[in-house]
TrEMBL record:
The keyword Transcription regulation does not apply. GO terms for molecular function: hydrolase activity, hydrolyzing O-glycosyl compounds. Pfam families: 3D, PG_binding_1. One of its GO terms (biological process) is peptidoglycan turnover. GO terms for cellular component: outer membrane. This is Cell wall-binding protein yocH. Residues 35-91 form the Peptidoglycan binding-like domain. It comes from Mitsuokella jalaludinii. Residues 1-25 form the signal peptide.
Length: 197
């Protein structure tokens, strides 16, 4: 009986440790159009190893994609130009991806982001929660990001989920700006955001 208790204790400890390790692990996805600290980390590693020239600007454009493809091909990986966990592990020498902590406390989520303003044709000046559409507001799918959630968006700043939209489903957000020109300049991007609460 005592041996069974010890075995149960060891098994429970192992499961707890394994579950904690898995919870701490972070995923990375850098592809054409991605922006943010994850892109900057990948670019820095590519620059250090001679695959990319220039500065790590945090924007995954054509040069970054080409550098990822070259690295993947040279290392026997699927050369799709997308840096996921497998490519990152080889690129970093077996290190696990850890999100940077410079302004980015919270849980990382990858989303497809578009932009809007109250000036856009057909848009209301008010959010689903009755507040004014303005910089610092995002429209979300409440089943993915509940209304009222605070997020941090690199290059944009702090935002609160206060709006919804008919086309905003799944891991997609709409980022509010004060003018239509700003919204158009933002365009459509694959980005990482940080869920604060």
């Amino acid at each position: 009986m005592r041996n069974q208790c010890v075995l149960v204790f060891l098994l429970a400890s192992f499961l707890l440790l394994f579950g904690t390790t898995e919870a701490m692990a972070s995923n990375i996805l850098v592809r054409q159009g991605s922006r943010g600290p994850a892109v900057r980390q990948v670019q820095t590693l590519l620059i250090e190893q001679g695959w990319l020239t220039g500065a790590a600007d945090g924007i995954c454009g054509n040069q970054t994609v080409a550098a990822i493809k070259s690295f993947q091909k040279a290392n026997g990986l699927d050369d799709d130009g997308v840096c996921g966990n497998g490519t990152y592990s080889v690129l970093s020498g077996g290190q696990e991806y850890l999100p940077s902590s410079d302004e980015s406390d919270g849980t990382v989520m990858y989303v497809n982001a578009t932009a809007y303003s109250a000036d856009d044709p057909g848009n209301s000046a008010y959010t689903a929660l009755g507040t004014h559409v303005r910089h610092g507001i995002i429209a979300v799918d409440p089943s993915i990001i509940p209304l009222g959630t605070h997020v941090y968006i690199p290059g944009y700043g702090e935002a609160v989920a206060e709006d919804v939209g008919g086309a905003i489903r799944g891991h997609r957000i709409d980022v509010a700006f004060d003018s239509r020109a700003e919204a158009l300049a933002f365009g459509r991007q694959d980005i990482e955001i940080y869920i604060r609460d």
